[in-house]
Amino acid sequence: MVDSARLGRLKFRAWHRGTREADFMIGGFFDKNHASWGDVECDWFEALLEEDDVYIMAWALGTEIAPERYEGPLMDAMRKLDYVHIHR
Questions:
Q1: In sequence order, which ranges of the chain are alpha helices (DSSP H)?
Q2: Which of 8, 28, 52, 82 has a CA positioned 20 to 30 A from the CA of residue 36?
Q3: pLDDT digits (tens, 9 = 90+) for 16-74
Q4: Distance between CA 87 and CA 24 in Å, rounded?
């Protein structure tokens, strides 16, 4: 089980990216998926959060190829975009 303080930090960083679009994409991904994560997945996400939003969004949208270190099941899940819910 992942430490709740770590998850709290990841959630904050995921939802405070600087643009609404990035917040919805990255924060929404965290909200939908974090409950099943262990340390390996948290490590992946923590590293991803260090990247610029423009790259993360391009990788998720498929307009750019993600670096090999991010490829795998989590990036595949991010590319589904079924976690983005925009509330007006």
A1: 4-15, 20-22, 28-33, 39-49, 53-61, 73-80
A2: 52
A3: 999 999 999 999 999 999 999 999 999 999 999 999 999 999 999 999 999 999 999 99
A4: 9
